[in-house]
Design goal:
With about 170 residues, this protein is α/β, with parallel strands linked by helices. The protein is built from five helices and seven strands. The strands form two sheets. A five-stranded mixed beta sheet has the order 5-4-3-6-7. The chain is elongated, with a radius of gyration of 20 Å. The termini are far apart. The relative contact order is 0.19.
Length: about 170
């Protein structure tokens, strides 16, 4: 009987390993949560990076915009940055939300790589990310002129991904 007690933690650990392995094999890692697609963008205000004053993400009727969650500590965000700069050059309106990042670090990041955003907001505590359903940065949302989220892209924007997002705006 004492031997079974000695092996019980190993048996429990083995059972948990089988349970997690079964979950991982059935889960498709390409599935991206799209919970807010087709729903209105969360109405919220966040501090502006430049002024520190609370400001809305956007006013209704501004036309389609991209809302990009990024951070200075995020390596994939640095990879996607040239694409955001290219979108700015094309006249695409991109609002940046610095997710769980210090304002000084965000400012240094944008100074070093360039500023592709028409507006920059700070989401220091992740509240906006939670409202949007952000699973990790970078994430980009296409928002229509009516304020409804049209599409979501998880991960760094590539030229093809950006083109696909913009096609959905029309």
């Amino acid at each position: 009987m004492k031997r079974w007690l000695a092996f019980s933690p190993l048996i429990v650990l083995a059972a948990l390993a089988v349970l997690f392995a079964g979950y991982a094999l059935k889960r498709d890692p390409r599935v991206q949560p799209q919970a807010l697609v087709g729903k209105p963008m969360p109405a919220m205000t966040l501090p502006d990076l430049d002024t520190g004053r609370e400001a809305a993400l956007r006013a209704p009727g501004d036309g389609p915009i991209l809302v990009n969650f990024f951070a200075s500590w995020c390596a994939p965000c640095e990879v996607e940055h040239p694409q955001l700069m290219a979108l700015k050059a094309q006249g695409v309106t991109v609002v940046g939300i610095a997710y769980k990042d210090a304002p000084a670090n965000t400012q240094a990041f944008l100074t070093r790589l360039g500023d592709p955003f028409v507006a920059k907001r700070i989401d220091r505590d992740g509240r906006a990310g939670l409202e949007f359903g952000v699973t990790g940065v970078p994430e980009t949302y296409l928002v229509g002129s009516d304020g409804v989220i049209i599409a979501k892209h998880t991960g760094p924007l590539t030229p093809d991904a950006a083109e696909n997002l913009l096609k959905q705006a029309k």
